[in-house]
Write a structure and sequence with these properties.
Blueprint: E1 2-7, E2 12-21, E3 24-34, H1 41-59, E4 63-67, H2 75-95, E5 99-102, H3 104-112, H4 119-129, H5 139-160
Parallel strand pairs: 1-4, 4-5
Antiparallel strand pairs: 1-2, 2-3
Length: 161
């Protein structure tokens, strides 16, 4: 099963693609889609949409997992990230791929085994689970890989449960 994880944002969108077979992970690729802050916001959203379409075409995943938004401070940032998440969901839906959504708590629980884990713990455990020599950079890409791991674990527990 190929799973693509996406960590939404408007300046940086993290992505990661993993293959999961019989309990073993292989990292296919990870990185970030970055938008130019000098561009008008609608143009940045358009670029995110186009880049996500291209990534989906490249990986042809069996499933795509996207983190749900959680904000408790900056409302303006939350709205802008919400817009970016919307164009990401639109791209996935346009391509007809299954979309799975997970809260940060669900990702932490799946990857670390503790829903209140610190970000550093999640990144370290993602590195271990994926057999990587170092924590992926940027952080958004590491988060996207953690989201993909979460979905793979969740999908397998649904099949075995």
């Amino acid at each position: 099963m190929i799973v693509m994880g996406i960590d939404p944002g408007y300046a940086t969108v993290g992505f990661g693609a993993v293959s999961y077979d019989r309990g073993k992970f292989s990292v296919l690729e990870y990185g970030a889609v970055k938008t130019d802050p000098a561009l008008p916001f609608p143009k940045r959203l358009f670029e995110i949409h186009q880049d996500i379409l291209s990534l989906i075409d490249h990986f042809k995943p069996d499933a795509i997992a996207v983190e749900e938004l959680f904000f408790n401070t900056n409302v303006k940032t939350a709205i802008e990230v919400g817009h970016a998440r919307g164009v990401i969901v639109l791209a996935i839906t346009e391509k007809g791929y299954p979309l799975f959504e997970y809260t940060p708590l669900q990702v932490k629980q799946s990857v670390v085994g503790y829903g209140r884990a610190e970000k550093r713990q999640v990144m370290e455990m993602t590195k271990v689970l994926l057999g990587l020599s170092k924590i992926p950079k940027p952080d958004d890409a590491a988060d996207a890989l953690a989201i993909a791991v979460c979905h793979a674990h969740t999908a397998m527990s649904r099949l075995n449960g």
